[in-house]
Amino acid sequence: MTDASAPSTESPSAPAGPAIDTSAFDPATRPQDDLFRHVNGPWLRDAPIQPDRATAGAFVTLVDEAERVVRGIVESCRDALDDPAADLDADERKIGELYASFMDTDRIDALGTEPLQDDLHRIDGVADVPTFVEVLGHLERSGAASVVGLYIAPDRGNPERYVTHVVQSGLGLPDESYYRTDETAEVRAAYRDHLERMFTLGGFESPADRAARVLDLETQVAAHHWDRVACRDAQRTYNLLDRDGLQALLGPLDLTTWSTAADIPASVLEEAVVSQPSFLEGLAGLLTVEHLPAWRDWLRWQVLHAAAPYLPAAFVEENFAFYGRTLSGTDELRPRWKRGVGFVESAMGEAIGRIYVRTEYPPTAKERMDDLIAHLVEAYRRSISALPWMSEATQTEALAKLDAFTPKVGHPERFKDYTALETDPTDLLGNARRSLTVSMDRELAKIGRPIDRDEWYMTPQTVNAYYNPTMNEIVFPAAILQPPFFHPDADDAVNYGAIGAVIGHEIGHGFDDQGSHYDGTGALRNWWSDDDRAAFESLTAALVEQYGALSPDGADGQKVNGELTIGENIGDLGGLGIAYQAYRIATGGEAPTIDGLTGDQRFFISWAQAWQSKVRPAETVRRLTVDPHSPPEFRCNQVVRNIDAFHEAFGTTSADALWLDPEDRVTIWAS
């Protein structure tokens, strides 16, 4: 739990070395007009996007570096399998065998679709809705997508216990909007062609007819899906039902038949939080005899799609042609070794993480992060206490939530146990399915057990961070604690502008449009007065309007969805604003000028460095539809436009492009 006492304003452990290369700036672009391109302009112009990537930038560079380290771990385990002198532990041997199975392309090609035949024969036998439901349950452990998704998580209404969550599913395209808008008509046509080619590769007759049936069925399913904005609503998506209530929504999808075939204990479905109840009702109306021919083809498609990464090259390449090239604009399939590393990480991520942190996570990193987090929490405390729009009663609740935050840095204290996983270097698809079963059983076993507050939802080698509202925790894996986000030898301005803003962002999710519905215990509870909620929503509405007017390069005029991105935009704005306050606390308001840049200027430049990124046009369009994050250029520029300290640091005027009239600047948490 975060220490509630105010941290010292001294930072004796913080070095004062520069970490900003001013020679990389674009002198033709003024920071007052475009901070993002002033800092990153030459890189944006010259840096290539690797042919197997849809993006390039700071995040991708760190991902590549983590991937390089993990490759060394995985390949050393594989190479030691045949070495009698090698001293591999059980996890290392399994890592090696998983990778060996993925890299054995000769055996994969020789097997063809043989490993799928049992499942496909089962589907052939679907003659009525009950047998469809039974086969659907059987496929639950194969990796094939289902008509509904199921996961185990703390109960938002009572976060001291786990409960099953049921969510909408069943689509092969990224989002329900892809099935209905004119803008995505070409993508739908390409998807239909992809389905036809996959059925052809699978040896099915009349592949075009099957593809048309699947697309038509998914279009009907998509008509009942909630859109992504609605799915963000913490209150609307919390619908706790007992088994009878869930069964009533599902109609012909008999829970006993399905769960027995899926080997899911009855206790798992005694209660469930249903995220989109009307979707289940709509789905029930499609589970009819008349739809069975389409459902059979849909099942066949799910089996082929789920197994495609583990089948011969023709399947792999066709899968990439649509999901990589068409949807994201990526030029080339990732090299097999990269896909192999990803496969092993998906199966034994924390076993790899246990090895990763031995060399990649020095103890000094946690010490510095603890100091940064303490200052960020103190900055939030001071800001909340001084908010002009929030009443004292709501401030008291907000501060109690802040005091209850739990930070996690680096890696879990206790790594996951993979004893139950059986691996075989000659059985790739079997390895994939056994891994899924072990993971699934681990999740199902949570029902009825105490909450595991030591659990992590990212591996140490993941370049990211997250906030978990039901545990009220902020989590920073080891892999993100590197430049440009975290510089062990940089001055405070650089670290607070980058990793400090990341910390502030994750804390800010506890107070964004959805996180603010949870209290300090992680319970979904309204701790706001009506007036305070109205004031908050007025501020967020202004932010929605700001971002909704923006269109990034490569989007052909398509604009940001301000409602979809509002949570992340609040996180960015509050994160950077609070990070600046924390930076001032840490330095006592005094910082040297380095390379002609004041401390405040270095702070904002560091923020811009962290968002160095470029995205392929197709991927830009896809993200605008499905991604709750704004494009990188706006995560940089639109945020600083709202922060007074940026305008003061660079002396902006109304003649500058990044100028925003003071009365139009949105300040939510930083003051």
TrEMBL record:
Keywords: Hydrolase, Metal-binding, Metalloprotease, Protease, Zinc
Pfam assignment, any one: Peptidase_M13_N
Gene3D superfamilies per record: Collagenase (Catalytic Domain), Neutral endopeptidase , domain2
Peptidase M13 C-terminal domain residues: 464-666
Region (Disordered): 1-32
GO molecular function: metal ion binding; metalloendopeptidase activity
Domain of life: Bacteria
InterPro entries membership: MetalloPept_cat_dom_sf (IPR024079), Peptidase_M13 (IPR000718), Peptidase_M13_C (IPR018497), Peptidase_M13_dom_2 (IPR042089), Peptidase_M13_N (IPR008753)
Cofactor: Zn(2+)
Gene Ontology biological process terms from the UniProt entry: protein processing
UniProt cross-references to PROSITE patterns, sorted A to Z: NEPRILYSIN
Residues covered by the Peptidase M13 N-terminal domain: 31-412
CDD domains cross-referenced by the UniProt entry: M13 (cd08662)
UniProt biased composition (Low complexity): 1-19
Protein's UniProt keywords contain Hydrolase: yes
GO CC, any one term: plasma membrane
Similarity remark: Belongs to the peptidase M13 family.
Protein name per UniProt: Peptidase M13
